[in-house]
Inverse folding.
């Protein structure tokens, strides 16, 4: 029974109580009056419960951490292919926080970039990176955690469940299939590429962040991650 039906019932019982009181049916008047009040209170409770339920939902805040977040376009390295065949790989270091008031779980992540064809090209499938991304800090080596896949050099947490107020951070990685022509990221005067990041959750909701990342030479990327850009090649993908 919804709040409208309960409200109607409360009104009917109230009206009956008034009529009975006019005909000196005191006991019945009290009974119907009590029922009217009860239904009114129930309608208030149901309305508040429904409102609370409607307002209870997750809200994900996406943040892009600059290091290591970049892209690179390079020769596809496929045998017997034209030198115009290339591949683009993108690595993003994300922090995702649930600022809502209901739990959720991180689902698929999509990345789109502004291409030299003057449109947005989307990569909708995350790729497994075959090596950790590391950065020397003094005499130590910092290993950046993956968001979803297991690291090779440390035991990272890949749980993507988020209670309200909880956050997760980690690397997500994408490789584009071997492509030709101008299907690669367009850079501005600062060697930056416009990207859009869409994070889905397992409840069918999604959030988007528009940012810029740096485009680098593939050799520079492989100094920190030797297998960067090689997943599809080694898997004999196109």
């Amino acid at each position: 029974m919804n709040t409208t039906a309960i409200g109607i019932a409360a009104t009917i019982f109230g009206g009956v109580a008034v009529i009975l009181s006019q005909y000196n049916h005191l006991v019945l008047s009290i009974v119907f009056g009590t029922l009217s009040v009860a239904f009114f209170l129930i309608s208030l409770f149901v309305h508040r419960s429904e409102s609370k339920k409607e307002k209870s939902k997750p809200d994900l805040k996406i943040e892009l951490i600059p290091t290591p977040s970049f892209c690179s376009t390079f020769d596809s390295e496929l045998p017997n292919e034209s030198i115009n065949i290339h591949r683009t790989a993108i690595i993003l270091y994300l922090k995702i926080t649930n600022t809502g008031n209901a739990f959720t779980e991180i689902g698929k992540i999509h990345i789109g970039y502004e291409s030299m064809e003057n449109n947005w090209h989307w990569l909708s499938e995350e790729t497994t990176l075959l090596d950790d991304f590391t950065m020397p800090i003094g005499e130590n080596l910092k290993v950046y955690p993956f968001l979803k896949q297991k690291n090779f050099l440390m035991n990272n947490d890949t749980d993507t469940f988020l209670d309200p107020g909880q956050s997760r951070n980690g690397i997500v990685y994408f490789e584009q299939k071997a492509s030709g022509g101008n299907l690669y990221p367009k850079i501005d005067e600062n060697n930056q590429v416009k990207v859009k990041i869409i994070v889905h959750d397992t409840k069918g909701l999604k959030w988007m962040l528009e940012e810029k990342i740096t485009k680098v030479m593939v050799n520079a990327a492989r100094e920190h991650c030797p297998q960067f850009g090689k997943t599809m090649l080694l898997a004999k993908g196109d």
Q: What stands out?
A: The CA atoms of residues 114 and 120 lie 5 Å apart.
